[in-house]
Structure formats: structure tokens, C-alpha cells
Amino acid sequence: MATLAQLEDQIRKLQRRADVLRGKESVEVIAKIRAMMDEYGLTTADLAKAGAGAGSKNGAVRPKLPPKYRDPLSGATWSGHARPPAWIKDAPDRSVYLIDAVSRKNGATKRASRKSGRSTA
């Protein structure tokens, strides 16, 4: 059985290989995109304009919500809105995945006391 150090070394080597492959593929993809843009006479301004209304009925751009939860294993995040990802959907207590839970609790306490007119100090 492999040791943890051996597995971590394998992971590092594989990540380097993946990064090299991603770099090579991205060069090819960029070349294809540029060729298509030239073929259709598109500019980056056209792309920005087309993307501004994507996914909304009235064309308004909604800001991306900041992440509220983080998976400690993969580092994946979730804002807490829409469908929960697989890593958190069946969790009995989602608070263990909260990002910066201590400051969130302090902030919630301060907001609650401001509403009630009491001081937290």
C-alpha cells in the first residue's frame, strides 16, 4: 500500500501534467476562437454585449453571490442558493461547511443587537 507521501507526490506530478496539457489545449482553443471571430467579424465587445443578457429575462446582469459554504476536501464552494451540490446536499448540519463561521456569527449578533437597540459591548 502506498504511503501518504507517495500519494501526495503522485498528485503533484499528475497536477503538473494536467497543467501542461491544459496549457497546450488552451492555445488550440484560443486559436479556434480567434478564427471563428475573424470568420464572423466579431470583436470582444460583441462577446461582452452578448453575454450581458445571458440567463436573464430582462437583460440585467445579476452579480454572482459570494460563497457561503466550502467543501474541506475539494475546496469547492456554494453560495447557499439554488440546488445544493452533492458534497453538501445530504449533510445533516451544514454549519460545519460555513466559510468563516466565527465572523458570520459575530456579524449576525451585531446586526440583531442593532435592530433591537441593544449594545453588544
From TrEMBL:
Keywords: Cytoplasm, DNA-binding. InterPro entries: H-NS_C_dom (IPR027444). It holds the Pfam family Histone_HNS. The keyword Membrane does not apply. Residues 51-60 have a biased composition (Low complexity). It comes from the Bacteria. The keyword rRNA processing does not apply. Residues 51-88 are annotated as: Disordered. It is found in: Cytoplasm, Nucleoid. Residues 67-91 form the DNA-binding protein H-NS-like C-terminal domain. GO terms for cellular component: nucleoid. One of its GO terms (molecular function) is DNA binding. Belongs to the histone-like protein H-NS family. This is Histone family protein nucleoid-structuring protein H-NS. The lineage of its organism: Bacteria, Pseudomonadati, Pseudomonadota, Betaproteobacteria, Burkholderiales.
